[in-house]
Every structure is written in structure tokens, then in C-alpha cells.
């Protein structure tokens, strides 16, 4: 071992001087952005950005169900709706996630919050049937858990996996054209993902598409 | 000298656990070693009891060992399990980094490990890692906390043991919710290492420095029990306390109007599920599940606390 170090050192000494090249010190600021120094947040944001168009959006368009069709199937129970339209990771006690599209009338809106939301009446009875989470802070992990290509085992730990869910929520929120001003009473159309733990729960949808005033 | 002593001590440990092995009938399916942190915390006791019961139902002998969150002790227990030719190991581990080596050692000895509650920092070594969905659970607890606080006021966070990923993930889940409310101000954040005694002591000190606090959010139930006891002693039962685990102690406190809420981890079922996956793996060579699995948590409030018993919810 010691001999190896010695001979290595000797080899270095014997390198011809001509092989030396003066390299400027790297700019410390640009270095901090390289992968070695990346935080979980930055790494997960990059992971999501790399796959958003190529993998995430295709899963969404392939699994989208219209609100009315979903409600009809939900009448037979959550598992029936899940078997027909749902997505969920393998394992016991994982709830179903769905991709839904529809349009309705905004009954309530909180747009000036970091966790902006709109309540939407889907069936014309005047009361809200779904919540649209506009973010940028969005609750839950529906978007992550609906993706069949995302497997917990592939990630370092729950912390990294949670940052991934958050990065996906933030990417969805960033891609929306946020409604402004007085929106109550307006029509809204959306496609988005939500987790449903019980048939009677209000879907808290993370929209990936959103437009005000009728079909997009 | 120290080596001889260590062998002597571990053989003592083996002798001490021998009586818990069921030798009544000769069983063909072999031995399952169940290794958890100290049973002083009822959470870990529920895990050990759940795993042992299911293993015996499925026809295994069992050996139950406690590592007290000491990686060296845990390592010796793996040696014991390997020396006894265990068929499988069910483990709630003593540290995400420190546990990689012993699980690897067991794997090389042909013994598969099935982890519950806590993850390790690598995949591909254990067969299963079944953990509570701590992020989802922490968000549930935080939402309840925010609502109980009326979305405002100074509060304290008691964190779990730093070497345990669950401490970090629960704190992340809490803050992803709480930090959305600018009128909620965290005046102290300290680790009480999952411990009731430390929870009491830390709370006592924090309260002296910050007499104006309105709430305490805790990374687990034992720290919540410690904090609540300190608040009671200081005649400050107006302070809102929220825990995490779903222990019977906190259930009783909730029902008596003490601690306000907690988050149930399905610890009993989780331990049973790990044994079922071990059994399936030993019989068929596969669990049929991905290695890492999450199990959802449930918010416990006065409304459903009455249905809670030993880390499972009825009805």
C-alpha cells in the first residue's frame, strides 16, 4: 500500500512539465449550480422538468375521465371507479388517484393566497362539487402518485420523495394561466388530478389545464 | 479483553431472550427474528406484538429483540439472528445509515430483512421497506394544528431524533402546511429525541423563555405526552398540543380534553403485513410488491379517538 503511494508520487514527479496546463479556478457561483451541490428541491425540480412533456402529460391524457362518467361509476363505489379509471401505486392502503376533466361555475374563490383555490359547481345545483388547487402551494401527492413510472423504491427516502411531490405540484401550478379579478359566477374548464380516499370526499383537484369562460 | 466481554454480554442477551422462543411444538417453517426499538414506547411494543402474533399464526417460531436505538446493539442482534439461522428478520431499525451494513450482512448470510416504520438510505438490500406515509400524515396533523390555532400565534415544534428520517419528513410535512400562514410564528424548534422525559424537560425550558406560546406541534406522541405534562405542571393547559403516532396514552388524553389531536400510524397492521410479505417471499421467492411501500395515516381527534386501540382504528 505504502509502496503504491510512493510509486504514484514518483510517477507524478516524473511527468514532463510540458503536460501542465493552467486552468482558471472555476467561478464558485456557477459551481454551486452543478449537480454535486444540488439540493433535493433543485434535483427533483429538474427531474420533473425532464419528464413533464414526455411522460407526465401523456399519462394524464391517456387516463382522463369526464366528470359525468366518473360520477356515474362512483355510484357503484370507489373501488369500481378506481378499477375503471383510477391510478395508484402498488401496496396495501394506497388510495386511488384520478385524472378528471370538466367544466362548471365558480362558487367561491381565494386567489390572493399562496395556496389559491376555487370551488366549482359541476352539476348546476349552486353548491360546490370540486375544489381546484391553483397553488403555488398545493396540498397532497396526487400528481406524483398517479404516475405509474414513479416508484418510491427508486428514491433515496421519504424526504426526497416528498420533495418530488412538491416539485410536481409546483410545475403544474406554474403551467397555469391564473385567473384574476372577480371569478365567482364565471365558467371554468379544467383537467386535473386528485386523490380520493372516500367516495363522499370533495375532490381537491390539482389542475394541469385551466381556462376561464367555457371549453378550452 | 473488550472482545471477550462483548461476546459474554451478547451471549447473556441471547440467554435472556431464549425463554420468549416458543418451543412448545416443533415448527417446520423456521425462526423469524423481530428487532425493534425499546418497548418503553408503546408504538414499538405494538409492532413487536403484531409481528410476533402473525408469525406464530403462520407457523413460525419467533425471537423478539430490542436494540434501544443503539446501532452497535442492533448489529449484535443481527449476529444473533444469523447465528441462529433465522428464516427472516422483521426490523424497525436504529438509524438510516448505520443499518445498511447489518442488513447487507444478513442478506449475504441468506436471511432476507423486512423493514417497518423506518427506512434505510439504500434500496436493493432489504426485501421490503414498509413505512407510514409520514408526509401525508404530517400534513393532516399540521392542518388540524393550524385550524386549532385559528391560523395565528406563536408556536413550538418538538422534533424527533435526527438520525431518523421520520423526524425530518414529519417536520417537512408540518412546515409545508404551517408556513403558508404568515401569522403563525415558530418561536422555538428543538429535538427531544422522541423521548417523553426530554419532551418534558425541553418544554419546561422553552416555556420559561417563551411564556406567550399558544401551541406545540410534536414529531411523535411520547414527546407530546412529555410536553403536555410540563404544560400541566406549569398550569398552562390552554396550550394546544398535537402529536403523531396514535398511541393509547394520547387517545386517552384527547378524550379527556388534554392533547388536541394526533395522527395514527397503522403500526400494528404494518408489522403484520411485513410478516405476511416475509412468509410469501419465503414460500414463493417474491412478495409481489415493490420494495418500498407507503401506508396512509389517519387524523385522530375527539370525534374518532374512541375507536382507536393499540395503533389500529375500528369501525
TrEMBL record, chain A:
Signal peptide: 1-19
Keywords assigned: Lipoprotein, Signal
Record InterPro entries: TM0957-like_sf, UCP033535_lipo
Naturally occurring in which organism (per UniProt): Salipiger mucosus DSM 16094
The protein's name: Putative erythritol ABC transporter 2, hypothetical lipoprotein
Pfam families according to UniProt: DUF2291
Keyword Lipoprotein: yes
UniProtKB/TrEMBL annotation, chain B:
UniProt key word ATP-binding: no
SUPFAM superfamilies: Periplasmic binding protein-like I
Superkingdom, natural source: Bacteria
Compartments, record wording: Cell envelope
Keywords: Signal
UniProt xrefs under InterPro entries: Peripla_BP_I, SBP_2_dom
Periplasmic binding protein domain boundaries: 32-283
CDD domains: PBP1_TmRBP-like
GO annotation, cellular component aspect: cell envelope
Pfam family, one: Peripla_BP_4
MF GO annotations: carbohydrate binding
Entry similarity comment: Belongs to the bacterial solute-binding protein 2 family.
The name this protein goes by in its record: Ribose ABC transport system, periplasmic ribose-binding protein RbsB
The organism of origin for this protein: Salipiger mucosus DSM 16094
